Every structure is written in C-alpha cells, then in structure tokens.
C-alpha cells in the first residue's frame, strides 16, 4: 500500500480567507451567468480556443498528489528519465508537469518570477532543456490570483510578464489555479492569461484549474484547452466516485482541443488495485487527461500495468474526441459508451457497490453499428468473444470491465498466448522448460518459449507445449494453497479453468483463483515464484491478461 497523497500545506493568513474568496467569486460569476442566460435564453457555448494544441487529452505526470511542495529539479529529471526507460513516453505520456512551490516567495526587482535556486539550481529553463532532450515536454504551475494556493506569488495583474517568462524558459503547458483570486471575475483573470500565452508566440497548453466553478465547462473551450470540473481529488474511492458523477454529465462540452478535466489520476497512491483500474478505465472512457499523480519512479508492476495498458489508452486518445456518456446507472451499476473513430464503441461496465454484480446492456443501447454479430474485446484481459448483441459481465465491487465492441466475430478459444501476470509483469511458465508431470508452474520473464504458450480449449483447459500438457490443480485438491502443476491432459475437473471478465482465472472444480504466491508483496513477484490456488480477493497477483 502506498501512502495517501499529502494534504495541501497549512494555509498562511493570506490564504485563510480562500473559502470566502471562492464564495465571493462564485457569487459574482453566478450573477454574470444569470445575466447572460436572460440575454441569450440558453446556456452560452463558447467557440473552441483553436490554438491547435491538445487535440487528444494530454497525458503525462504531475508531482502534487505524491509530493506536495517537495518538488525539485532532480525529481522532474528522474521522472523524465523513467518515462523514457519504462516505455510510458512511447505510450503517450509526454508532459512532465511541475506544480506549486517551485518559485521563491518574492518576485525580483523587475517583478519577474524567480525559480527557487535550491530546488531548481539550473532554473526552469535548464530543467526544460533536460526534459526536451528526452523527447518530452515541460509543464509549470501558477495561479490566477495574487498568490498560489501555497502562498507563492500569483499571476494576477502580471499575466503578460509571467507568460513571457514561461515562454522564454521553454514551458509547454501551464496549469493555472484559482486561489486568492480577489473576487475578480473569471473572464478577466483567465482570458488575460489566455491572451498573454498567445502573445508569446509559443505553443503552450492552457489548463484551467477553476475547481468547476462558474459553470466553467460552458465557456472553457473558448479560453483554455482543459478545465477542472470539480474540486481536488484524493486517493479514496469516495472521492473518485464523486468526481466521476460530476464529470460524466458534461460530455457535450468536450472535444478535440477542449477537455473536461476530473483532476489527476490517483492510481498507485493507496486505493485497491480494483479501484485503481476503475479510475483509469473511467477517465479513459470520459476522454479525460491522463496525468499520473504518483511517484512513477517507484511504481509497482501492478501500477504500471494500469498506466501502460495500450488498449485503454487508445480509447482515451481516440481522434474522434468524444467523451463517453452514461447509458444507464440504476442501483449504482453504470454503463458508459464512447464512440470511436473507426466505428467501434468502447463500453465500460462500472460497479459502484461493494459486492460483485452482473451488469448487462445491449449493442443497440450502446449505439454500436448494426450487425448480426459483435466481437467483444476485453480491454484489460485481451480475451475475445462473440455476441449476437448482449453485453454482460460479472463485475467485482468497485470494479470496471471494459469492452471494445465491433461488428463481426472472434474467440480466444483455440488461440495460444502467454499469460501475463499484472503484479509481476512476468509470464506463467512451466519451470525450466520441463515437460514431466508434476513440473511446477511459476512466473518467469516472458521469453516466447513453448513452456509459456497457453492454449485455451473449448473444454476449459489451459494447455502448454502445443497442447500436450495441461495446467493442473495438484491431486484434485480444492483448498487454499493447493499448488498448480503441469500434468498430462486427462479431462479431469482439476484441469478446467475459467477466464473471467475481471482478469481472474478460477479453477472450475475449486472456484479458487490462480494466484502468484505472496505476490501481494513486491518480494513475491520474482522469477521462480510458484502459482497456487487461493481465495479470490481482487489482488493484482490474481490478475492475468493474454499477451
């Protein structure tokens, strides 16, 4: 378990009146909005900013959720290194964003912002040069008030001067917060920075952190590239759920270059693996920015299996640019659908409740193209099935199952794949490449060997070595801790397995999950760790995908 994200630092006297200022600002904006509604007769819908940026939702990293004010040049540069070495840059994570506390408490004699020399000895320009050399982009933070949320100089009445600094330093992305705004209307504050950024001539993505106030989604597209639709998130299911409920209703306002932002991802910061998977799934389905808020340098293989899922990322980054919409939500069982550029639809089945439930819908309900049959690709397990129109899955409490639905047919039965473990990023493996009955089944670095090539048969077997040997629960045992071994295929119940929509593999005879022994701890995911049967518990060490 990773520690929960740090709270905002205690506010100095200047910031203690933030709630009052927020209320005053909201009140002024509400009166302005009411006047507009009277004049226009309907909610205003701004034209897109059209600065050519963020044509798909931005992806990257921000330091705040995991580090608070403990930002530094070293952290940013090491994160940039890791984005490259881990492959996340190539998956689309290309912004490395610095949040609050990067500057000194005072401007210089000319009124310019000053990077803290202890935190950024090479300045923001030196950090940007390092990040750019890695094929990445740098983001910075400021506030549309007299001070940032942590009490550093804000940009109100310094917009062009600060924008010029950002551009000269090589900044590519600005997160612009809402603290200490002095009750100045949003039009004055946010439009001023929009225009200042434009005047620099540098391409800088404009991310407005206006906390969902002033119905920002109705005017955000004319001012920025993305806008926060809610208050701050934290690493809890309740916070994630509340933000989801708010953001999912705003699909009509999102599109290429203009995105609803339900805040940074808390994936890896303390929720369960199932909850982390739900957050990532829902953010992708809602075409939200995918900004990692965890320390990626020390992220587990389980966390990286979520951030690095190319199929789910592809849903988020689909060039059609449509945010997913809710088809149904009865009893906390949510069905979302998102049209994709090639005519497919992405469907998310989300269970808000604590107990497992079956969630069902139809191809017609999710607006899939008319067809006599549909190919359902599970985006977390890569398993494929065919349906005449029904879409259904058993979804664990707080869990999400995602399908890509397309006309046609397909099946994973009879196909051969390595089975990749989420907690280890290693493959199911017959130890040492041995074929003898009783050979241990373990995890090992994926290497393409026939001892890692599993074929799912119509009888429910998992066969290795081209189909001559089966995965077997030792001696027909059905208790937790039963070892899993290789044995000659014999049609026994202890050789029958079920690949489930949630990523688990259960023994048909026992109902227990295929489990990496001790894999709920980092030390339990090394090469040679044996597999066993264990009570299903939602752990990443019980999650598998077809590689």
TrEMBL record:
Broad enzyme group: hydrolase
Entry's family note: Belongs to the glycosyl hydrolase 27 family.
Catalytic activities: Hydrolysis of terminal, non-reducing alpha-D-galactose residues in alpha-D-galactosides, including galactose oligosaccharides, galactomannans and galactolipids
Keywords assigned by UniProt, alphabetized: Disulfide bond, Glycosidase, Hydrolase, Signal
Gene3D superfamilies, per database record: 2.80.10.50, Aldolase class I, Golgi alpha-mannosidase II
Pfam families according to UniProt: Melibiase_2 (PF16499), Melibiase_C (PF17801), Ricin_B_lectin (PF00652)
Single biological process term from Gene Ontology: carbohydrate catabolic process
Molecular function terms from GO: alpha-galactosidase activity
InterPro entries attached to this UniProt entry: Aldolase_TIM, GH, Glyco_hydro_27, Glyco_hydro_27/36_CS, Glyco_hydro_b, Melibiase_C, Ricin_B-like_lectins, Ricin_B_lectin
Ricin B lectin domain span: 416-547
Entry EC no(s): 3.2.1.22
Keyword Disulfide bond among UniProt keywords: yes
Annotated TM spans: none
Native source species: Actinacidiphila yanglinensis
Domain of life: Bacteria
Stated name of the protein: Alpha-galactosidase
SMART domains given in the database record: RICIN (SM00458)
